[in-house]
């Protein structure tokens, strides 16, 4: 009888000990995990804070996940000349553009015309061959207007409003000239049109602020398609395409 009692007490004791080990084991393990996890997350938090602090002056969390190799991010300027690109073209009114932006360009024109019915396309896609003749024609005009200019001086003057062959982004099919007047005159509604441009994926390519970056003077008529997300970010942060591309991978 006594022996049986001792046995039972012993068994219960062992059982209680076993259960308590189980019970204690689990919580302490998970507590450790929580501690480990919180250590990890606070570490990664502090890392990301440092990262964003470093570049916060140039980009923020809303930077689009675009790449410099995206088709609508192509860069053509005097430092980045390109041979004939031969994009697939679509005729819209009096101009041709890269087929991929035809709908956006038409919608942009319609919205611009709602601001001023005189808004119209002046130019779209221009081949390198056509740009060559256009550029030479401008140089001739400048030399005729001011006989004291030699060819290089005339070219320097022309380059403030037109680019040499292979260096104009009109050859991409992603640039349009849009104004309520002739392209080389100042438009009265240009500012309003530039404000709505990002809604259709366009940016005013040559702003007055951007001249040191682009090397091109203010052009209130020249718009470049970069896609809605990029256009909104670039406009909000006052970035030229050259500056924006430096922020992307
Ligand atoms: Zn243009």
From TrEMBL:
This is D-alanyl-D-alanine carboxypeptidase. Residues 50-61 have a biased composition (Basic and acidic residues). Signal peptide: none annotated. It comes from the Bacteria. Keywords: Carboxypeptidase, Hydrolase, Protease. Residues 28-71 are annotated as: Disordered. One of its GO terms (biological process) is proteolysis. Residues 95-227 form the D-alanyl-D-alanine carboxypeptidase-like core domain. Residues 35-49 have a biased composition (Low complexity). GO terms for molecular function: carboxypeptidase activity. Pfam families: VanY. The keyword Transmembrane does not apply. InterPro entries: DD-CPase-like, VanY-like_core_dom, VanY/YodJ_core_dom, Zn_M74/Hedgehog-like.
